[in-house]
């Protein structure tokens, strides 16, 4: 991510700091797609947007999502995307991700069992029910980075 994109991302995060979670309109997927688009010029999973809710904005169940998208879980689905690859920090870096990674954390209270966010150097940001939630850099289970051939 270049300096101009980082400034644009910080502006966007400031604008939505207290914007609450709204299914399909402002949820983890729309949030991380917008961040990715600011950082890299394209969303990471635009094909999925809106496809995880019914027409009346009710979330699909896990079995319905598995049938519709053909994946066992979210990590497997992200692994399947072109332009993304799992990122593992070097052992001597205290799990430091750097900036510009997609991160997920297992959270039972969400419809898909995961929260999705992005890395910002020494912090991670996720969309919570009342706005953005900032966390320390170890607050993730898996991370993905951009693959240059996108």
How would you portray this structure in words?
The chain has a single domain (3-146), classed as endopeptidase fold (from Nostoc punctiforme). Helices cover 27% and strands 23% of the residues. The protein is built from four helices and six strands; from the N terminus they run ααααββββββ. The chain has helices at 3-15, 28-40, 62-69, 74-79, and strands at residues 84-86, 98-106, 114-121, 124-128, 131-135, 142-146. Strands 1-6-2-3-4-5 form a six-stranded antiparallel sheet. A hairpin with a 2-residue loop joins strand 3 (114-121) and strand 4 (124-128). Helix 1 (3-15) packs antiparallel against helix 2 (28-40). The longest helix is centred in the first third of the chain and has 13 residues, at 3-15. The radius of gyration is 15 Å and the shape is globular. 23% of the residues are buried.
Main attributes?
150 residues, alpha+beta, endopeptidase fold (from Nostoc punctiforme), six-stranded antiparallel beta sheet, 4 helices, 6 strands, 27% helix, globular
Tell me, what's the shape? globular
Structural class: alpha+beta
Name the strands of the widest sheet in spatial order. 1-6-2-3-4-5
What would you say the CATH architecture is? Alpha-Beta Complex
Count of helical regions = 4
CATH classification, class level: Alpha Beta
What proportion of the residues is helical, as a percent range?
A: 25-40%
Q: What is the total domain count?
A: 1
Give the percentage of residues in beta strands: 15-25%
Query: Over all CA atoms, what is the radius of gyration?
Result: 15 Å
- Average the pLDDT over all residues and give the rounded result: 88
- Distance between the terminal alpha carbons, to the nearest Å? 14 Å
């Amino acid at each position: 991510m270049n300096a101009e994109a980082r400034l644009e991302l910080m502006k966007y995060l400031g604008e939505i700091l207290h914007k609450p979670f709204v299914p399909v309109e402002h949820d983890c997927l729309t949030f991380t797609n917008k961040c990715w688009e600011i950082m890299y010029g394209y969303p990471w999973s635009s094909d999925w947007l809106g496809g995880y809710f019914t027409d009346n904005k009710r979330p699909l169940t896990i079995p319905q999502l598995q049938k519709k998208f053909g994946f066992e879980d979210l990590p497997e689905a992200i692994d399947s995307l072109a332009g993304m690859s799992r990122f593992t920090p070097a052992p001597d870096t205290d799990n430091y991700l750097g900036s510009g990674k997609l991160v997920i954390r297992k959270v039972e209270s969400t419809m898909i069992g995961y929260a999705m966010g992005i890395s910002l150097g020494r912090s991670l940001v996720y969309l919570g029910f009342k706005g953005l939630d900032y966390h320390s850099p170890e607050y993730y289970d898996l991370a993905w980075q951009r693959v240059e051939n996108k």
